[in-house]
Each structure stands twice: as C-alpha cells, then as structure tokens.
C-alpha cells in the first residue's frame, strides 16, 4: 500500500525509504499501544486497543525510541524525525567506504555521495561527492542526482573498457574523456531532478568531486570546492583537485592559505553544476600514486577544519591508529571529528585504500 509521510502528508510509493517531498524517513515503523487511563473501564480499554491495532503504525524516534507523531516530531522528546539524508554510509567493497552527515548547524543535508567498487582491493572504484549550494533551495536534490548520475556513468565505463580490451597506454585519455562526460551527465540529471526550479533566478546547484581508480591509475575531476586528496602513509600527501573559489584565486595571487580560507568570502565558489553555471566542465587530472595510502574525496564540511594535505594526512593517520583501516570506520571518525569542531556545514568523507607500492607505468598526460 502507498505510504503516507507522517511529517507532511505526502503519499509515497510502497517501497519508498524516505518522503519524496520533505525527506522524512519512512521505514522502521512501530505500533503504538495506549495503556488504559485511571478510571477507564475494561470495555473502553479493549475498544481503544482494537482501534490502536488497526491504526497506521508510527516510526520510532532515532534519538530516544519514542513514537513520531503525525506532525513529524517525537511525542516523547520533541525532536523532529530524522531524515534518511541526515546520515548514511556506503561500502560497496571492503576497501572502499564513505559517510555523509548533516552536521550540527544545518537543518538539512545538502551533501551527497555515490560509490562503486570491485571486490578486489585496488582494482577499480568510483568515488563521487557533491555538495549542494546552501543559498539555493532544492540543492539537496541536485547534489544527490548529480552524484548518482556521475557514478553510474563512470562505473559503466569499466564494463565498456574491459569489453573493448583497451591497454594501459590509453587509460589516461579514456578515463579523462569519461570524467568530462560524467560532468555532463550530472548536469543533465540535475535538470531532470529539479524540474521547474531550473527556471528560477537562483536555481539549485552543487559542487562535484570525483575519483576513478583503475589499477595504478587515478583520474580525478572537480567543479567547485569539494576536494580529492592523496593521503600517503609516509611521504608527501597531496591535494589532487584545485578549487573553483574566491580563496583559491586569492592564494594564486600570493595570499596565504590561512588568510584566504578564513576570510568571510572564502567559500564563495566561482564554478558549479547547475542551470546558472558559467562553466560546468570538470578540471580533470590523471595521476599515479605510489606507496601505500588513501584516496580521500570530501566536502568542505571536513576540509574546512583541516585544509592542508599534510595536516589532513596527520588527522587520518591518527584516526587509523585509533579505529583501524576499515574505510567506513575511518570516514565515520572523520565526520565525528568535524562535528566536534563545530559541524557548521554538512560533512562527507569517502575513502579508498591502497596497500601496495605500484610502479608508475607512464607520466600523467
């Protein structure tokens, strides 16, 4: 049967996990029983119990276990029902995983991620993070549509490449072209997801950061200020993407990182995915990381508290020392750390693990 959203009353498909209109989670329903009040007759109590058993089950509050009322708030603690978008994790393989979290200050989560990976460590993976622009309502839909469209297109490239039998000498050009196509697919998916909102003066939009791991080769693409890092176990860590932002332009003109990224306009982006974007083409960079380490794709909700690659590497090393090398556990700890720093933005951290030294087969194009 169709599922009625307890928060906004929207009728959703029977298999919907969260409301298409407001994002409220629709799963984990619990039945609510009513104890007889003082002085209530046994007959009335039985009648109330029968009525209760035929009424619509209610969801359990994730904070206290109480029941979510029809207005979308818990009857016991009063907190609003948590949306599925508020916090979730993905782990397509044991060596790849990520966590996406609403943070503390924002009312909704406009970050999104989408992952794909082969079971064999280091063989093939796709990591995509998109951060909805908070000043444009509906950007949560834009980011999720963009992330999923890009991941689907990049993952499909793996199947095509295997079938076509391309060699390593063409890998850089092949994946670079496909990364550019993924940006186009993401943009088209945003248009489809937001519908008539695309015609607004300030339409929904998002950033884009992606990494394709194909054996020793890593190809990254970016639009906006979500980032991809190489976090080395030892040696030099690097930021693999370049931000499209006011702060990046100021650093290019000689301003220090600390000054540029602490300025009020630091997070003003100059390029993004969306109907009003001046340029949606991703910057694409192929590279061959050597040694053991991590590919980290994240939104500014994480790197805003730890921007420099070496500083972020120190944080990751400390987390791994505490929780081990499971990517989801590492990502979850990074998200928790960002929330402890203030959680002023949505936070997404996605990681893929490299465990072996891989010789560089060719210089990046």
From TrEMBL:
<dbReference type="Pfam" id="PF13672">
    <property type="entry name" value="PP2C_2"/>
</dbReference>
<feature type="domain" description="PPM-type phosphatase">
    <location>
        <begin position="96"/>
        <end position="354"/>
    </location>
</feature>
<dbReference type="Pfam" id="PF12773">
    <property type="entry name" value="DZR"/>
</dbReference>
<dbReference type="InterPro" id="IPR036457">
    <property type="entry name" value="PPM-type-like_dom_sf"/>
</dbReference>
<protein>
    <recommendedName>
        <fullName>PPM-type phosphatase domain-containing protein</fullName>
    </recommendedName>
</protein>
<dbReference type="InterPro" id="IPR025874">
    <property type="entry name" value="DZR"/>
</dbReference>
<dbReference type="InterPro" id="IPR001932">
    <property type="entry name" value="PPM-type_phosphatase-like_dom"/>
</dbReference>
